[in-house]
Amino acid sequence: MKKIFILFLGCVFIQNHLFAQLIHISTQENSLIFQVTKQKKVMQSHYGKLIKNTQGLEDMAVVFNEAYPSFGNGNNDEVALIATHDDGTMATDLFYKSHQQEKEDNIQKTVIHLKDDKKELYVDLHFKAYAHENVIEQWIVVHNKEKKEISLSQFASSAIGFKATDYYLSHFYGSHSKEMMISEERLTNGIKIIETKRGVRTTEYENPTFMLSLNGAAKESHGEVIAGALAWSGNFRLAFQVDDKARCQMISGINSFASTYHLASGENFETPRMILTYSDEGKNKASINLHRWAKKYNLRAGNELRPIVLNSWEGAYFKFDADKLKNMMDGAAEMGVEVFVLDDGWFGNKYPRNNAKAGLGDWQVNQKKLPKGLDDLIDYTAYKGMRFGIWVEPEMVNPKSELAEKHPDWIVQRQNDRKMLLERNQLLLDLSNPKVQDFVFNVVDRLLTTHPKIAYVKWDANRHVQNFGSTYLSEKKQSHLFINYTRGLENVLKRLEKKYPSTIFQACASGGGRVDFSSMKHTHEFWASDDTDPYERLFIQWGTNHFYPPIATAAHVTKSPNHQTHRETSLKFRFDVAMAGRLGIELRPDDLDEKEVKFAKKAIALYKDIRPIVQFGDLYRLLSPYDEDGYAAINYVAPSKKEALLMVYSHEHHRRYERNFVKMQGLDPSLIYEVEEINTDSKKSHISFNHQLISGEILMNRGIWVDLRRPLESAVFKISETK
Ligand code: GLA
Known about the structure:
The protein is of the alpha+beta class. It folds into three domains: 5-297, Beta-galactosidase, Chain A, domain 5 (Distorted Sandwich), CATH 2.70.98.60; 321-393 and 436-464 and 499-616, Aldolase class I (TIM Barrel, Alpha-Beta Barrel), CATH 3.20.20.70; 621-721, Immunoglobulin-like. The strands form seven sheets. Strands 1, 2, 7, 8, 9, 10, 12, 13, 15, 16, 20 and 21 form a twelve-stranded antiparallel β-sheet that branches. Strand 3 (21-26) and strand 4 (30-36) form a beta hairpin. It is globular, with a radius of gyration of 27 Å. The N and C termini lie far apart (56 Å). The structure holds alpha-D-galactopyranose (GLA). Alpha-D-galactopyranose is lined by residues 313, 343-344, 391, 460, 462, 508, 510-511, 527, 530.
C-alpha cells in the first residue's frame, strides 16, 4: 500500500492509491472503518469501539454491506440511493475512486469518492470525526455529471451496519404537549421505521434521533449504545433492518416520501448530516458525547450563559395592553428576570391578532393595544434593567390577513381550486420560493433594524404542510417542495445568524415541534413543549436531554394549577424542575402572593449562581421517571468536577422512603465535597447530613438517602469541593 503525505496549510492529506486497504475514521474512543476490496467496492468493516491496531482487518471477510448501498447493485434490501439515470435506467453500482483524509486539531475530515461504473454519476461520502467528543458526522454529495437530468428517489445521509446478538431500539415519539416520550423495543427480523411525512413541525410526533443498544437493553452506565441524530428540520426517515444474518443495518436521511428530486446535468445534491456516537459505557455517555459536541460545534453560542426569561404567553395570552405588559415587567425585574419576551398578539391592524384566527403575516404593531409602539416597551424593559424579546411566526399566514390578500400565490397550496386545509386557522408560506424567503427574512430583519435593542427572538411555527403544492415550483419539480422548503428555512436562519450574531433565537413549533440539530445550529435554544406542568416536564426533559443539551432546553415556571393539565404543584417543585434546563418564568408576576414572590426571587438568584453547572456541565441520569418506584434524579457536574448539582424528584406517594437511594455520577472520587441542600421552602432538610463533608467516592459508589415521601416533592443539592 502506497501512501502520499502532502503537507498543506498545517493539514496532512493522505492519498491512497492501491487496494485492498482500510479507511479508518476515528475519534479518541470510536472507530468507523471501511475496507476497499480488490473489486474496488467500499464495504463497512467496523463501527464501534476504537481499534488502535487494525492489523489483520484488511483481508478479513466482510461482515457488513456497502458503505453506500445503491439500488441496482444486486442487493434489493433497504438502499441508500435510488437514481434514475439520463437514459431512464435505474441500476447504480458504485465503485471506489479515491479518498482524502485531513486532520486539523480536534477534527478529522474524510471524503471517499465513489463513481458508478457505467454512468457519470459520482457520490462523495463525507465524514467529520470529532476526537474529544467521539462524534462522527456523515453526509453525502451526489454529483450528476451525466449528459441529461437524472432523478433521485432515495438519498440517505448514512448507511451503517451493526452486528450483535440482539438490538434494542429507543426512539422518541410524542404529540403536542407530550414530546420526546421514550419507547424502547427489541428489534426482530424485518424493518422498523421512524419517520415523519408531515413537514415543518417535524419533531412533534417523532424525533429524528435514536439510541440502539447492542446485546441487550441499554442501561444508563453500561452496555454498548449507538446514538444517532439527523440534522434536518424536514421529513426524515430512519430505517433499521435486521436481516437473516442477524445484522442490523441503519439507513437514515431525508424521507423521500413525495420527494423525488430532479438533478440537471452538472447539479449536485447534498444530504443533511447524520450525527453518530458510540459508547460502551451505556446511554448516558452517548448523551454526554452529543451534549459536549453540540455545545462546541452545533449550537449558537454554546459557551455563553443563557439569560433568565419571562415570556408573556401564559401570563397574558392575547389579552394585553402596554400597561399590563409594563406591570408584568415590573414584577419580572423585581424577581431578577433578565429578558422580557412579548409573545403572540402584538401585531395586525386591519385584522388584529386578538386570537389565533387573524393577523398572522401582518407584522406591524397593533395600534390599539400598543399605541406607543414597541420602543415604548423596549425602553421600559431597559429602564427596568432587562432586555427585550419578541415572538414571531414568519413562515405562516392567517387567511384573514393583509398578507394573504396581497400574496395568495405565496401560500403552499394544493392548487386546482382544491380546498385549503387549515390548521390552527393558518396556512403555510412557500419557503421554496426565494421571494418568500426574502419576505420571511425581512420580517425579522425589519424588526431588528428598526428596534436594535431587541435581544431575543422566539420563532414559532404552528402547522404542518398538508396542502402540498407550490405555485412557484415548476410542474415537474412539485416533488421538491418538502426538501426545498426545509432548505429555504435553513437559508433564512443562516442569513439571520450572520447578520445578527448576538441576537438570541429560540426555535419553537407549537412547543417541541422543531427540536433537531439543524435548527439548533442556527438558534440558541428551543421551547421543549407547550406543556409546562413540572410533572410532565420530568418526562419531556428526560427524553429531550438524551440528545439535546440542557443549556438549550427552555423550561419555564408557570402558574398552578397548570394551564395544560390543571395539576397543582408547589412553586418549589416548579422551580426545581425548570432549573434543570434554561430557567424561565411564564406567568403574570401579579398572580404570585408576597411569599411566592420572595421564594421566586431567591430561586432566580440561586439559579444565577448554579447556571454555569447546569448549562456548561455534564448531565447524568440517575433515576428514571419511567421506573416504577416513582422517583427521578439527575446530577450535573461542572467541567472542573469541583462543583455539582443533584436534583431529586418524587412523583408518587412513598411509604418506604428508604427506596430513594441515590448514587451520583461523574464526580472526582478523590475529592471531598460539601453537600448543601438549596432552593428550600422550609427549614427542614431532606438529608440528615446537610453541610457535611463527604468524599466523591461515597457520593458515587455508596450513595445517599434523600427523604422524599410525598408526590410532587423535590430536593436540590449543591455539591462543592472543599478547599
Ligand atoms: C405556540 C407556542 C406557544 C405560544 C403560542 C402563541 O403554541 O408553542 O409557546 O407562543 O404558540 O400563539
